[in-house]
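In response to a reviewer's request, we include the raw inputs and outputs for one of the modeled complexes. The two entities were modeled together in a single run.
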Amino acid sequence: AQKVTQAQTENSVVEKEDVTLDCVYETRDTTYYLFWYKQPPSGELVFLIRRNSFDEQNEISGRYSWNFQKSTSSFNFTITASQVVDSAVYFCALWGAQKLVFGQGTRLTINP
Amino acid sequence: ETGVTQTPRHLVMGMTNKKSLKCEQHLGHNAMYWYKQSAKKPLELMFVYNFKEQTENNSVPSRFSPECPNSSHLFLHLHTLQPEDSALYLCASSPVSQDTDTQYFGPGTRLTVL
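The model returned the following structure tokens for the whole complex.
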């Protein structure tokens, strides 16, 4: 069965600190895709990144970076120099069994 | 309008009412989805349409009835709902329904059933 676990339900840091959100997944597929989405208070899920299982290179996009470790089935997300506008719920997701399976989400609060 | 839009954004209904949620995508996609997001639960996939054909019904109660008249529009018809159906209902679209395609979401409809 496909499963995504985001053990941190909530996380809170002070502005300008770095913060890492954890994501661990389970799948029997050899080819799969992982995603991160951001859900601000407005409700819309905003796509951040898609990574396929064959590409283990870490990715950086501005203040965002992702660390994909196939050996530990993890796909962690780091925000560097966090800002108040980064406050949102962040979801990790795995495409498996012909559908997108989401984790529970981590509510991130950036305090000024 | 661009992206995925949903109307209404908020809806309050009684258990005996009939209402419909509307989703429209302006991305030229061929797959559309309904998700339910309840408090403290992961997003739950409800329905998937590919090229206007329903390809997934994730054991959703019959009081929820989807309709996809064309690839750009998706409706969710609601009748005799229960208070536990109160949730954020999110619509999404993707080029087709497969693993290589990213799903893009609308802002959701916040539904309250009294």
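As requested, we also summarize the result in words. Chain A is about 0% helix and 55% strand. Residues 43 and 89 of chain A are 9 Å apart (CA to CA).
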